[in-house]
Amino acid sequence: MTHAIRFHQAGGPEVLRWEEVEVPAPAPNEARVAHSAVGLNFIDVYYRTGRYPIGLPSGIGLEGAGVVEAVGSAVTEVKAGDRVAYAGGPVGAYAEARNIPADRLVKLPDAIDMKTAAAMMLQGMTAQYLLRRTYRVQPGDTILIQAAAGGVGLIVCQWAKALGATVIGTVGSDEKAALAKAHGCDHPIVYNRENFVERVREITAGSGVPVVYDSVGADTFAKSLDCLRPLGMMVTFGQSSGPVAPVDTQDLSKRGSLFLTRPTLFTYTAKRTDLVQMAGELFDVVTSGKVKIEVNQTYALKDAARAHIDLEARRTTGSTVLLP
């Protein structure tokens, strides 16, 4: 028998339980992966609290890295012994071992260790689609990233800087401002002390930015719109402060014919060809040194509830991994 974190009802971190589970032989299209590390992401909180409904009881977690132990009869993508990683589901990564559809796995380059892989897949591929597909950042662009010292934020700051952009980022403290600045954020703004709309307008000489990447949600949405120039794009890709209220499309018109999108990694990686291409681009920027993955917190997998408490209290920076 192996162990996994499971929950039987939606609620606070206390609903997470360390349970014995059985991992059967893989189905024809599955691979069994023994995890070396598991990624912690805010979307896990959404599942745990019921904000994203899921059938219960359930496992939890969308990101992990490990070694393939066995494959089903129809699997061609990987083989036993391969070092692999994945992000985006199906849910159930908080486990010592699990079965997962093999077409969701990507092989890891030798230069990337397991903790780094588990920390980078969901956040790194999110950064990839934000910067290279949702709004394709060009040299000379000035962008705004909310929560710049978070896991996605630190990757976006570095990657956007490598692309030749000027990066503005909001953070919650001077310590996080220093962290963001050290990772390519040209203009960190401490949002609870400064008016970030006024600062963005000042930095851009009144014109606003072409894109805002916002994972905070309710608390920042309207002000993020105020930071955009005409024809700018609002990218809302998370809701750590709560869901965004319904939007009047006339408001987008009045603010300058703005674009609004709510993308998800699941959509961008639905085709395996896209998944492999996105992961490959992420691996390239990490192995080149242009983007450094900061694993700033580690917890034992069985202590996932404590990790959730710290995540929700905004006591974490960069990426966090859970170790089986």
Protein model, in words:
The chain is of the alpha/beta class and 324 residues long. The protein has two domains: 2-121 and 272-323, Alpha-Beta Complex (Quinone Oxidoreductase, Chain A, domain 1); 139-262, Rossmann fold (3-Layer(aba) Sandwich). Helix content is 31%, strand content 27%. It has ten helices and 16 strands. The protein has helices at 42-49, 114-134, 151-162, 174-182, 196-203, 221-226, 249-254, 265-268, 272-287, 304-312; strands spanning 2-7, 17-21, 30-40, 58-59, 63-71, 83-87, 97-101, 106-107, 142-145, 166-171, 187-190, 209-214, 228-236, 259-261, 295-300, 319-323. The strands form three sheets. Strands 3, 5, 6, 7, 8, 15 and 16 form a seven-stranded mixed β-sheet that branches. Helix 4 (174-182) links the parallel strand 10 and strand 11. Helix 2 crosses helix 3 and helix 2 crosses helix 9 (272-287). It starts with a strand and ends with a strand. The model has no long low-confidence stretch (mean pLDDT 96).
